[in-house]
Amino acid sequence: MSPTLLAAAAPDGPSLADFGKDPLWISIIKALFIFVFLMLGVLFGVWTERKVISRMQHRYGPNRAGKFGLLQSVADGLKFGLKEDLTPNTVDRVLYTLAPIILVVPAFLAFSIVPFGPSVWLFGHQTPLQLTDLPVAVLFVLAMASIGVYGIVLAGWSSRSPYAILGGLRSSAQVVSYEIAMGLSFVGVFLFSGTLSTSEIVASQAHGGTVGLFGLDIPLPSWHVVLLLPSFLIYTITMLGETNRVPFDLPEGEGELVGGFMTEYSSSLKFALIMLAEYVNVFTVSALSITLFLGGWRAPWPISLWDGANVGWWPMLWFFIKMVLVFMFFIWVRASLPRIRYDQLMAFGWKVLIPLNLGWILLVATMRVLQVESNRVALVYTLAAIVLVGCIAVWFRFDTVLQRRREDREAQVEAEFAQLRDAPDAGGFPVPPLDLPHYHGAERKEVPSGSN
Amino acid sequence: MGETITFWVLAVVSVSAALGLVFSRKAVYCALMLGVVMFSLAVLYAVQDAPFLAAVQIIVYTGAVMMLFLFVLMLVGVDSSDSLVETIRGQRFWALVAGLAFAALVGLAIGNTIVGPAAGLAGATQAAGGNVPALAQLIFSRYVFAFEVASALLITAALGAMVLAHRERVRPKPTQKELARARFFSGYAPSLPGPGTYARNNAIDMPALLPDGSVSRLSVNRVIARHDVDDDHFPEDAKLADAIRQAVEEEGK
């Protein structure tokens, strides 16, 4: 049986041609489902995040409203709705009201191209489990993200407060720079799947190709996360930056900016909209990472051995599980990393992520062209080996240089300390020597105060 | 039908936004109106079966270019006014010439499409297999030179801006350590030490030492000092013992 016949017998999922055929009421059902999914997701996502972070910090977290505090977010939401809507006197009223709406609408729109599963029968119609698909679906998400930043920037500007405007400024520069790195990390996926439509990208991760080496057929892994690991890692970092999450949550850095761009949105439904948009954005980038790199709604390996794993309604469960796991990663990062400084953030985005990404794209494109056009496997492997060896050599070189530099610095510090210890009056700091009796030497555990 | 409705709705929106751009007094509103015009254009592209152009219009123009406009507006402040002196000689004349030339170019382009028979979008993109591949094929084969020239122009502009804004660093950037040292040398102690911070003991009953080695009288705990005097229990260091005695004496006065 030829491969084309095989593909026709068992398609890997819906493609672009399967969209735009639904009757209006099915589209409305799907849109409503996405809306309800995201709203419930935010309600319980906030609860999960607070609960998980609490357990990581040896606290209980919310446990008063409802069983396990499950209704805490519902209570918070009700409170947002019932509180007085304060509008500061000096704000620009039009933009102040408009900003949360500009923030929240694109966040919901971006989710319309996320594939939840393959085609299913829904009330007598066969329809893909995805609201819609575009030939440029992934770019659509980027476009919506860039509209959403307007909400943040305008919220900051219209508040007429220094904290808010600083938050808005930080956010505009940060999101624009991290969007470039994010867009570049998609390029590898586009090269391998040959399309920008999300449903077809998922379909392209159904079967990994095979590579013939020395007469052996070595199967390539099917999920892009394995083949395009650097792209995935860069995407993971940029998705934290794009959604203003820890460690890149400088636009709302409460340590220095009170609340950043949302300082003047005290506690009303407008603030609830901002929070909603923030979590929906997190869900969108999570869903996008699953779609592009983690096989979409496809079942992971041990389950995928079962024939019914990728058919019907089951894939929605796999998608949901993957999404929960990615969200858990967000929570884990938030619980463990401190916020970085703004200049470090910018330097990292422009001087590390973008150049690395460009180099990686160059490599992937070269490999892809050689593989597709000439199928000269030996050449591909030679090139890969050269690049690998080059990388290792560069790493060794850097490693030795860094080691030397570190030793130099240590020696310098040591010399400085010796000099200061000799002459505490001539500008030296009166730092107690480390071998004082109550320290019992630097080797031993420090004795707590009062016991010496 | 849907296309016609979209066109008329967007025509009203974008023309009024353009008028708002010209007549608005606040610079941020002007920038926002320009954003609305760009967004309307993107929707028109999408309706005209050009999804890639629509997405790129939003990402590049609405998302990046307008965002930078807003950024600069916020950074320099809305109140700063522009200088109206023309620095380029004959600017108006050449602007007029360029405007007329552009109008002629647009007129010719539109006339060209009206006069000749329409090939149809489907016919143009079908051979390549869709809108995005067709665009890619044209950009990277027939128009690759124009594409590269445009990118070279942009890079030149960016480099020029960087050269203009660049400042050669005369001395190395001070590190945190050097800044801290300079602060100490300035004679101003950054903050009062807590008890025991500079002392040789980390216990609260020992007076603290200031950065210059003298005893911080603020750090002497009066209650403990009184007990020390009553029990005749002093630290071995004479300097610290004096500080404790002094504190109790001062309190007694």
Topology:
The complex is a heterodimer of chains A (452) and B (253).
Chain A: H1 3-9, H2 24-56, H3 72-82, H4 93-109, E1 117-122, E2 125-129, H5 137-158, H6 162-193, H7 198-204, E3 210-213, E4 216-219, H8 224-227, H9 229-242, H10 254-257, H11 269-292, H12 301-304, H13 314-336, H14 342-374, H15 377-422
Antiparallel strand pairs in A: 1-2, 3-4
Helix pairs in contact in A: 2-11, 2-13, 4-5, 4-11, 5-6, 6-9, 6-14, 9-11, 9-14, 11-13, 14-15
Chain B: H1 2-23, H2 27-47, H3 51-76, H4 91-115, H5 121-126, H6 131-142, H7 144-165, H8 176-185, E1 208-209, E2 215-216, H9 222-231, H10 238-252
Antiparallel strand pairs in B: 1-2
What are its keywords?
heterodimer; A: 452 residues; mainly alpha; 2 domains; two-stranded antiparallel ribbon; 15 helices; disordered N terminus; B: 253 residues; Four Helix Bundle (Hemerythrin (Met), subunit A); two-stranded antiparallel sheet; 10 helices; 67% helix
Q: Separation of termini of chain A?
A: 84 Å
The CATH class name of the domain at 1-78 in chain B reads: Mainly Alpha
CATH superfamily of the domain at 1-78 in chain B: NADH-ubiquinone/plastoquinone oxidoreductase chain 6, subunit NuoJ
Biggest beta sheet attributes of chain A: 2 strands, antiparallel
Return residue spans of chain A where pLDDT drops below 50 for at least 5 consecutive residues. 1-10
Order the strands across the largest sheet of chain B as they lie in space. 1-2
Report Rg of chain B: 37 Å
Question: Can you characterise this structure?
Answer:
- The complex is a heterodimer of chains A (452) and B (253).
- Chain A is mainly alpha-helical.
- Chain A has two domains: 3-302 and 310-337, no CATH class; 340-423.
- Chain A is built from 15 helices and four strands.
- Chain A has helices at residues 3-9, 24-56, 72-82, 93-109, 137-158, 162-193, 198-204, 224-227, 229-242, 254-257, 269-292, 301-304, 314-336, 342-374, 377-422, and strands spanning 117-122, 125-129, 210-213, 216-219.
- In chain A, strands 1-2 form a two-stranded antiparallel sheet. In chain A, strands 3-4 form a two-stranded antiparallel ribbon.
- In chain A, a hairpin with a 2-residue loop joins strand 1 (117-122) and strand 2 (125-129).
- In chain A, helix 5 (137-158) runs antiparallel to helix 6 and helix 9 runs antiparallel to helix 14 (342-374).
- The longest helix of chain A is centred in the C-terminal third of the chain and has 46 residues, at 377-422.
- Chain A is globular, with a radius of gyration of 27 Å.
- Chain B is an all-alpha fold and 253 residues long.
- Among the domains of chain B are: 1-78, Four Helix Bundle (Hemerythrin (Met), subunit A), CATH 1.20.120.1200; 200-253, no CATH class.
- Chain B is 67% helix and 2% strand.
- Chain B has helices at 2-23, 27-47, 51-76, 91-115, 121-126, 131-142, 144-165, 176-185, 222-231, 238-252, and strands spanning 208-209, 215-216.
- In chain B, strand 1 (208-209) and strand 2 form a beta hairpin.
- The radius of gyration of chain B is 37 Å and the shape is elongated.
- The mean pLDDT of chain B is 82.
- The A-B interface holds A 95, 134-136, 139-140, 142-143, 145-147, 149-150, 153-154, 156-157, 165, 168-169, 172-173, 175-176, 179, 183, 196, 424-425, 427, 429-430, 432, 436, 438, 449-450, 452 and B 28, 32, 35, 39, 42, 51-52, 54-56, 58-59, 62-64, 67-68, 70-71, 74-75, 130-132, 184-185, 196, 198-204, 209, 211-213.
